[in-house]
Amino acid sequence: MGHFSWADIQYWRNQELPIQCATIIRDPLDRFVSNYNYNCSDAHPGSAEFRERFPKMEDYAHQLPNDYQLYTMIGAFFDFDHALELLTKYYSFIGVTEHLGASLTHFQTSHGLAKTLREHRENKSQTLVQVEIPDLVRQIVDAKSRNDLRLHRLVRDFYN
Fold first, then answer.
1. Does 18 map to a domain?
2. Is 129 among the domain residues?
């Protein structure tokens, strides 16, 4: 688990390492807004350049890749069924940020881990002010995250 991409996973698999993947996914809009805020914050080394390139959240939304989370986890896929097939082939666990504690408990139990996994959250951007998300940004992120949304809802509903 960690900040790995499909390219990293494929590299390790090509080395014939016996790896299992686990991940925690996030509501696509929340992930996008958090990423934008972090990139705009002084905690990010390139924040000045980022703010110059994307002065409005809408500007950043337009460049969002389609189904960013799924693509990061499994690379290219044809449709949602194909994505599920690849996820079940390569991942032994998927949790959700919104139910992080329950996800970690389930991960610990399902994988027979002896050590208790504790929830840890750290907001690197230090953004405490809630910013109104423009409707256009919501629409763009929703349109570019259709399969990410489906997967998130599917997994999130497991914890509801």
1. yes
2. yes
The answer for residues whose C-beta is within 8 angstroms of residue 119's C-beta and 6 or more apart is 100, 101, 104
C-alpha angle 148/150/156, rounded to 5°? 95
Domain count, the chain: 1
Pairing of strands 21-25, 91-96: parallel
Number of C-beta neighbours around residue 59 at 10 A: 12
pLDDT tens-place string over residues 91-129? 999 999 999 999 999 999 999 998 888 887 666 555 545
Residue 56 is assigned to a structural domain of this protein: yes
Give pTM, 2 decimals.
0.87
Longest CA pairwise span in the chain (Å): 48
Domain ranges, residue 149: 6-159
Which residues lie below 8 Å from residue 33, measured CB to CB, with a gap of 6+? 57, 131, 133
Q: Please name every residue paired with 93 in a beta bridge, in sequence order, or none if there are none.
A: 22
Which residues does residue 94 pair with via DSSP β-bridges, in sequence order? 23
Residue 1 lies in a domain: no
Sign of CA dihedral 107, 109, 112, 118: positive
Neighbours of 73 (CB within 10 A): 24
